[in-house]
């Protein structure tokens, strides 16, 4: 090779290297994949969310679509996606379309934590809407607090928790458990004096019954008139337990306070009827059975039994009639099981308005930033399908009315009691903290 040829080759190599470097810089920018942007942005644990118009923003949907809790949680997935579709049709949030990342933790509590972390880190979601059982919520709580992310939790629960990384759109004990027990003890509710506390063996029923026992004893109910028993998730054989209830109810004045969760409700109510017990003999007041669960049950033998919630499909106001109609139409349009025969219930309403609370807070804050959105949620007043509601000024919970309903032959509820307006939520029960000393909130900004 000549000297001139060698110089020419060296120059050519140098030019190619320069072209390669420029391409490496330019091509990602042309594709919109640069890690830098001229738009305002927020650094999050999961990555960067731009506040400028255009593009999309991700949310996570964390509900069991298989396993023992699918009977209850699948509909929450459905209604969150309906809310997303409605919001996107009306222009999105801060000019962005919402993209939902849906995962199935399969009623596996450890998997809930794994899926939550993936949604936050890998999917870079701005917020997560999910969980049903308290054990699933407790499983994911450290993840949300570690990464300062937001979870909107739509189900009634036992209280005794206040995380700055969770907004609780379901009921606290003073918005469900206590009003239900007060109703049963009243003349209007039957003046019952004996209480059989039956639940699934995990944190919600055990803590809920701790609150209920403290309340009942405060009202003068003797220890021998309170029974307490638990069964595992997916328990199917209730013959022995119903036999005990039948003996306990001999002579009248007895009722069941049920915190059974998931598909175990089906064999429990079936066995209750098989042994000849009716709501007249011993009414069941359920805290986790609503219209959606009744779709999977033989309803006629259950007529007259009760449930305490903060919403029923039968609430007869314009906003609710529209919501019910839209949900049925959404399920039919998307070929979801049950189609137009689907029903709404309390957790479905809470899951639905949770998405709208997040949207309103983002727009109020003008940002997807978790800390700014959190502050914007506090004190937020909003319309919901069941009527006006309000987020508490500082304790992460929701002001809600209380309803007690009686099961009808068509699987709906006749409202037999309701509060006069909304009830202020108590994250910690005064029956467990009579001195008024409550633990400080957990989580929040780092």
Write a structural description.
- With 446 residues, the chain is an alpha/beta fold.
- The chain has two domains: 48-171 and 315-398, Rossmann fold (3-Layer(aba) Sandwich), CATH 3.40.50.2300; 175-309, Rossmann fold (3-Layer(aba) Sandwich).
- The chain is built from twelve helices and 17 strands.
- It has helices at residues 3-31, 70-89, 109-121, 134-146, 177-185, 203-218, 239-248, 265-274, 291-294, 318-333, 346-365, 370-377; strands at 41-43, 48-50, 56-62, 97-103, 128-130, 151-153, 166-168, 194-200, 226-231, 254-259, 284-286, 306-309, 381-384, 387-391, 398-399, 403-407, 413-418.
- The chain has a seven-stranded mixed beta sheet with strand order 9-8-10-11-12-16-17, with helices on both faces. The protein has a five-stranded parallel beta sheet with strand order 4-3-5-6-7, with helices on both faces.
- Strand 8 (194-200), helix 6 (203-218) and strand 9 (226-231) form a beta-alpha-beta unit.
- Helix 2 (70-89) runs parallel beside helix 11 (346-365), helix 3 runs parallel beside helix 4 and helix 11 (346-365) packs across helix 12.
- It starts with a helix and ends in a 28-residue tail after the last strand.
- Residues 1-48 have low confidence and may be disordered.
Q: Secondary-structure map with pairings?
A:
Elements: H1 3-31, E1 41-43, E2 48-50, E3 56-62, H2 70-89, E4 97-103, H3 109-121, E5 128-130, H4 134-146, E6 151-153, E7 166-168, H5 177-185, E8 194-200, H6 203-218, E9 226-231, H7 239-248, E10 254-259, H8 265-274, E11 284-286, H9 291-294, E12 306-309, H10 318-333, H11 346-365, H12 370-377, E13 381-384, E14 387-391, E15 398-399, E16 403-407, E17 413-418
Parallel strand pairs: 3-4, 3-5, 5-6, 6-7, 8-9, 8-10, 10-11, 11-12
Antiparallel strand pairs: 1-2, 12-16, 13-14, 14-15, 16-17
Helix pairs in contact: 2-11, 3-4, 11-12
